[in-house]
Amino acid sequence: xxxxEFFKMAAAAGLTGAAQAGAQTSPAEPPVxxxxxxxQPGKGKVFALITPxxxxxPIFAGGTIAKLLNEGYTGYFIRVSNDxxxxxxxxxxxxxxxxxxxxxxxxxxxxxxKRYDLHYRNHGLDDVSRMEIRVRLIFLFRLLKVxxxxxxxxxxxxxxxxxxxxxAQAVEAACWMSADHLDFPEQFDAGLKVHAVSEKxxxxxxxxxxxRVVDIGPTLKQKLxxxxxxxxxxxxxxxxxxDSLTAQGMRIPAFSGTQEAANxxxxxAAFLERDKRIGSKYxxxxxxxxxxxxxDHSLDGYIKAxxxxx
Length: 310
Ligand SMILES: [Zn+2]
Known about the structure:
Blueprint: H1 3-12, E1 32-34, E2 46-51, H2 56-70, E3 74-81, H3 92-110, E4 114-120, H4 130-144, E5 148-152, H5 162-177, H6 186-189, E6 199-203, E7 212-215, H7 220-229, H8 231-247, H9 259-280, E8 287-293, H10 300-306
Parallel strand pairs: 1-7, 2-3, 2-5, 3-4, 5-6
Antiparallel strand pairs: 6-8, 7-8
Bound molecules: zinc ion.
């Protein structure tokens, strides 16, 4: 998340009076509504949240991450950048450390199994070899046997942050190439095996094709805790918003208390309001939208009709 991103959020929440950022496109069919499943369908399955920045997942998919964990999934967090540009008044070095500590806190609060930091420079991913990022992801997908990924939509429109779309493109390519025996076969000598990622939850800041809506009412408290754990970034958003308001001769009292209280007020105004608006489109209290790509069942019918026991 960068300055311009939270100004968009603030605008979307009506805080600045500016026009709201682009709405979602209309897919051909109504999206599938995914609700809490008490039968632990995620047991034995593995997901990886892969984002350039710490706060991307908590903000756009926090309720869904909590839902998958509640349903038995084992979760990993792969943070692609070092988040060196996202603080209010720290130096670059201090910012790297503060966000690294916050990332550790997020992993602990969420109950994720482990975090991998790829540590590429923040705001500079378009200058990194996409092949290099892809190979590192393929290695991790094979090592961790990742079934499901959550990441930015590589086909989301009007994304201005290169960190977001470079990460998304690397994730999408790595998902299927990790199943190919001719891609990086030297990894097999280290004990890895081909492994396909079969499910993808793609989120976007701008317009995207939405075909999956997750009811996050039951996991809203967990989502709040995840966003709260991104303390350095939230503090940056609040203080920068306050600077902007001050320049316009305004203030919001709720953003002026203790840092914790101000951060909570901002999270509610910017992010929970967004989730509430999304939910209201589908008759839900709070929701998150995705472009979801599931396992390929195109041959199931033929296999059922023609397969023999051997
Ligand atoms: Zn971001």
